[in-house]
Input
Amino acid sequence: MRRIAVLTSGGDAPGMNAGLLAAVKVAIARGAEVLGVENGYDGAIDGQLRPLTRQTTAGPAPIAEIERAGGRGGTVLGSSRCPRFFEPEGRTQAADQLRQVGVDGLIVFGGNGSLTGGHLLATETGFPVVGVPASIDNDLGCTSDAIGVDSALNTIIDACDSISDTARSHHRAFVVEVMGRDSGYLAMVAAVATAADAALLPEQQLSEAAVIAEVERIVRAGARPDRQKPRILIIKAEGVPVPATRLVKEVGKRLADIGVDVRATVLGHIVRGGNPSAHDRLLAGRFAFAAVGSLLSGASDVMVAWRPAIEGGQPTSDSSVVLFPLEEMLAETARLLDGSSPVTLARMERMRAAQNVLGL
Ligand code: F6P
Output
C-alpha cells in the first residue's frame, strides 16, 4: 500500500483543513494511506507524524478529528515558520524521517517560502513533493488563486462594512491596513469590493512622502464642500512601508485647516482567521484531488495551479487545475513581486483605471 504524508506550512490559510480532509479521502479512494506531519517542516525534521486514516470493518476511513476540522479555519495539523529547513541538513533529516516511517511522497500546503522549501527538498534529496498553493497573500506565480484568499477578502469586506458604519456616523476618514506581506493583491481587490476611495499598494513603489501626500489629496477631495463624502475609506497593504498610525498622524496634521478626523485600523491576523468560504473549500478540494492523483502517478517537484493567467503547465483531469514545475512557479513568483510579471503589470494597469473611478 502506498503511504503518503500531508503537511501545512507557513501562515495558516482558511481552507487548509478542507484541503487536508479532501486529500485524505482521495488517497483512501486510491488505496493509499495518509500520515499528517505536525507543525509544518519542524514536525518533518523531528518525525512528528500521526495517522489521518484508520482501519474500520468497512475499510479505512477519515478520522473524526480531521472530519470535524474540515469546515474550520486554521490548520488542524499545526504550522510553523521553520528556520532549520533553510539548511540542507534540516531537509535531509526530514527526508530521512519520512522514509523511515515508509512515507514515499509528500503534499505541502503553503505559500511562497513553504513551496521554496518543498522544491529544495525534492531536488536535493529526491523525495517526491507536490505543492498546493495556500496563502492569503495570493503572491504565488502561475496560479490565479490560492486557498485562503477568498475567505480573507470576505473577512476584510466585513470589517470594512463595520468600519464604514461608524465612519459615516462621524464623517470620518479611515485608513484600513490589511495583510499581504509584499503583495498588494488583498488590498487591491478589497478596495474595489468595498467601493473604497483608494488602495495603497507596495507595487506602486511610492515613497513615504508620496503616500502621505496621496492620502491627504484623497481626503481633501472627498471632504470638498461640493462632495462631502460621509465616509472616506482607503485600504492600505501592509507591504507599503509606512505604518498606518504614523500615516494618519502626518495626514491629520496637514488637514488641520479642514478638520477631518483621519483614523487607522490595522486588521492584522483577523484577516487570516475564520471559517473558509464556499469558494475556498471547493478550491481546496479540487487542488487536493489533483495533487494526490499527481503524486500517486509519480509527479514530483510540481505545484497544482488554478486557471493560470500565463502560458504553460501540464493539464490534469480537472480542466481548471494545471501542474507547474516548482522551479518555474518560483521564478514567476519573483517576477510577480518585483513587478516585472505580465500579471503584475496588467493588475497595476487595471488598478490605475480603477483609481479614477474609486475616487469619485
Ligand atoms: O503569509 C501570510 C501572512 O499572514 C502575511 O500576510 C503576513 O505578512 C505574515 O503572514 C505574518 O506572519 P506571522 O503570522 O508569522 O507574523
